[in-house]
Amino acid sequence: MWRAAIGGIVTLVLSLLVAPLAAEAQPPTKGYRIGILGNAPPTIPAVARLYDAFAEGLRERGYIEGENLVIERRWVEGWIERFPSLAAELLNLKVDLILSVGTLGARAAKQATTAIPIVMVYVSDPVEAGLVSSFARSGGNLTGLAFVAGPEIVGKYLELLKEVVPKVSRVAVLWNPIWYYGGYLSETQAAARVLGVTAQVYEAQDPSELESAFTAMTKARAGALLVLPHPFNFFHARRIAELAAKSRLPAVYPFRESVEAGGLMAYAANAPDMFRRAATCVDKILKGANLTDLPIEQPTRFELVINNLKTAKALGIAIPQSMLIRADEVIR
pTM for the complete prediction? Predict the structure, then answer.
């Protein structure tokens, strides 16, 4: 009898331990309709990789498009003035939730509704952008993930440049003032002073302005280039990398896609990982989580990617061995 009693206790304990895990792993009990509001469609390989990660994250949690999930996709494709009308379209389709990509998409979605949950991703600084009240509590119907750890990350960018070009005294800074928040620029100036370099700021709001910006950098005898986080710099990564090579400027970027396009090095959050984590956030909300209790997540995985063969060789730069050892990926 005592064996039966012990067996019953063991069974009870195991059932209590397994029950929460089983509940968490339960597939959705009904079908859902979510909307995606973004800038570029996944016809661009770098963008497709992000949405593939999001879809994979949803599948891991039991959401299968065409079975228990409908996804309505809307892209502005560079026409930013279309964000409000496309957000309205998604609301008219009675979506249960909106995944907004980028600061403008998140702002348009938030302005369109205070009732439908919004999960943002690829937003640089949602607090400074006025999207949420704090990282701890959103204070509204919007939550999700910030793309970078905050403006202070530019200090890391400059440190990497100094490590590659120790004698650099002038660093060109490429930025776009449209929809941009001054925290990154002021932080760049502060970090430059600490490292004993001069930050020379150059604006480019349109692709046609890029070449003249690089011409000005050359005339000002810049010794390296820092590209600040911005959608413009992401979508024109290849052209910027080409102009940096032509101007013989060692550059650091906030996107690994810039290195894949020929840039020298990038220190960036793992973007596919963030889109996969966005799927986890979506799952929590659809299962009834209180939106205001979900903190704004920040990157947990950063990667240093270096183009050590083609780009470094063309620039006549020897990447320090210590940097190559700690790099997450070295493109040779």
Answer: 0.79
